Fold these 2 entries.
Entry 1:
Amino acid sequence: MPTPSPALRPGDRVAIVCPARKVTHQELAASIAILTAWGLEVVLGTTLTAQHHQFAGPDELRRQDIQQQLDEPSIRAILCARGGYGTTRIIDQLDFSRFADNPKWIAGFSDITTLNCHLLALGHESIHGVMPLLFDQAGGEEALESLRRALFGEPVSYFAAQHPFNRVGSATGELIGGNLSLLQTITGTASDCALAGRILFIEDIDEYLYNIDRMMVHLDRTGKLAGLAGLLVGHFTDSNDNIIPFGQTPYEIIQTYAAKYDFPVAYGFPVGHEPLNMALICGRRSHMVVDETGVCLNYM
């Protein structure tokens, strides 16, 4: 079983870092105010004032910033400010030995999928959830509350309405997943995780339909779909097509490959690059039930 992190308490110190694309203090003002209202002391990483082309500073600066927060025992959670691209460039240079002795929550999604999976490969839970850049987005209040509840160790359950592609059934297993593109990118690396016996959740944004198909082919060819306990399909936002249409929607593409197996599947799950992006604890043993009304997911 992956190691859970201690629940936050009022007065705890939490750090905001930026391991990928750059961000400004102005863009984080709302999140700082919200975290403070939760009773937390906010520590700002050096990457929040840095920039190097698209990145929040050069690779070494971003590595140093997150390493400092991993090693600092007074920091009880690390929130990744935003995604974009860049985490895979520094993940292999991070040292998690002190973190293992003093685990803490690490939260983020999108490009941070690499970090979520890397932590699970090392035997630690983390949170796939809304990031500080998006704390004040319209319609995101429920997602933000789910993140707060996850951080503070409060009970939570999730429900999504019935979808015609759903396959009924129930499954129990550890949650794993995130951005489909990143799940493919980390295949064969130290951040890769076994999917057998686990409940996989996937989402993506701004991908060409043919590339979604290619990534699903890759998951299938590597045998990772065959051993799943269950599959949760989240938002596939702003998908693109070629001049000659691919001929299928993202859900139709995924259904093509999921149909080869008999595990339960639920589409339209509230996770991904939309305001309704509910916090999921990667590595947490969970139970999903798909029936005629929809899907319900609960932690064990």
Note: The first strand starts at residue 13 and ends at 17.
Entry 2:
Amino acid sequence: MATKTFTVEELSHFDGQNGQPAYVAIDGNVYDMTNVDAWQGGQHHGNVAGKNLSAAILKSPHGKGVLNKLPLVGQLTE
């Protein structure tokens, strides 16, 4: 179970650039996208890692169903 908490500022450092992991927040949960081929370089269809993408995932063709396959690494605090 995820126990780490991230502020918005802390999350922004996990952008998939310069050797950093690629993390995204969705509905308060932080997921690791680093090993997802479609997220190489920290970007996927105009979305960038290190951000809260709760609104963006609602517009995606796969929706939230894909989240069950991703490593949960923590929680986003506001």
Note: Residues 4-76 form a domain with the Flavocytochrome B2; Chain A, domain 1 fold (CATH 3.10.120.10).
